[in-house]
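Input chain follows. Return structure tokens only.
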Amino acid sequence: MKKNCIAIGIALTILSCGKKVEDTAYNGIPLETATIGNETEYLVINAIIEAYYQPEAGTVIVDQETSQLSQGQTAYLKEEFERQGIAYDSTALLDYAKKNGTSNYLNNSLSHCLVQLICHQEVTCIFCDEAGWKRFYQKYPQSNGLLQFERPGISVENDKAIIQYSVARDYLAAEWYVVILEKQDGSWTVRQRILTAAA
């Protein structure tokens, strides 16, 4: 019985996500139950939003689901830091690798009133076909794109952090960044942001 209910739920999700652009089946999808409760992680993410996206007019749309690390990503970051002579905290990188083995869900602790968290299922439904970005901007006309974060790695001293995130504005307009932050006078500030990929 449980398997049948799961199968029906999956089928309904697929059907609702495959409807026409004018259909608003993706409206009203509730957020998932948050799996990240560490306040420091939200302070780090907020520092990035405030540093790079709050001056822009419009709403900052953030995917509730954090992205999962790809195979070898941590080793790549370590090599890249060393190649470019970028100072980083090895305990923050270890924590980053440990936390991002699976996807997680953010809660509504992203501080600014112009930040809106949306469920990953909604993201999947909006981008179910080539009209995804048209559909996205119809629903979020004041948005400057879609951000997705990984969980930040925090140093054992709780004063340095490493995080990756992406911002996409269209199918061929996306950037991926790694950011190194430092806690100064009780606040997280960006020390360095490195573009790692672009489309």
